[in-house]
Design a protein that fits this description.
The chain is mainly alpha-helical and 174 residues long. 75% of the residues lie in helices and 0% in strands. The protein starts with 8 loop residues before the first helix and ends with a helix.
């Protein structure tokens, strides 16, 4: 975690800088999972790092530094999802049949997730993309555990419904 020695603000600044540098790879994976766009994820991570640096004085508990930064990143990603007119869908290249089928399923799931609300996309990204626990998600999104469980359940139900609707549509158009 963050090792902040008592004393000067300089030591705190160094510790926060080190935390942010160390967190960038994990932050990029989470942002890419939420945004479905590696370039937008890079922008989101940069924005989150800058925001975290600007807000470093708001970090009161050094033990909560990782959750504090994750919350900032999640909020930046949520804002980006709200700004987008349409979600970006990653296109696949033609590859062998087995790989093509796997990519097709992944893209089907990606399209279903992209049709969810930004809030639902974020909660699924934290749970399955970042593998956070319910309490950790609650901390990152500033929600109670019961609310996290309820929203996870609802988001998964919406993904299932979207997948089923897409499959029915495919069957009807054949």
């Amino acid at each position: 975690m963050l090792d902040v020695a008592e004393g000067t603000g300089n030591q705190t600044d160094f510790a926060i800088r080190d935390l942010l540098v160390e967190a960038v790879p994990r932050a990029h994976r989470l942002a890419a999972w939420i945004l479905h766009d590696p370039e937008a994820a890079e922008d989101a991570v940069q924005e989150a790092v800058l925001l975290a640096w600007d807000k470093r004085a708001s970090l009161r508990d050094p033990e909560a530094a990782e959750g504090w930064f994750t919350r900032i990143l999640v909020n930046v990603c949520r804002a980006e999802l709200r700004r987008r007119a349409r979600p970006t869908i990653v296109e696949t290249e033609a590859v062998d049949d087995a790989r093509d089928e796997q990519l097709s399923r992944r893209d089907e799931l990606s399209r279903a997730i992209c049709r969810l609300t930004p809030e639902e996309q974020t909660i699924l990204a934290l749970r399955f993309g970042r593998d956070l626990t319910v309490p950790q998600i609650g901390s990152a999104m500033d929600l109670r555990e019961g609310t996290v469980k309820s929203r996870l359940h609802s988001a998964l139900a919406h993904v299932r419904a979207e997948l089923e609707a897409e499959r029915r549509h495919e069957e009807m158009t054949r």
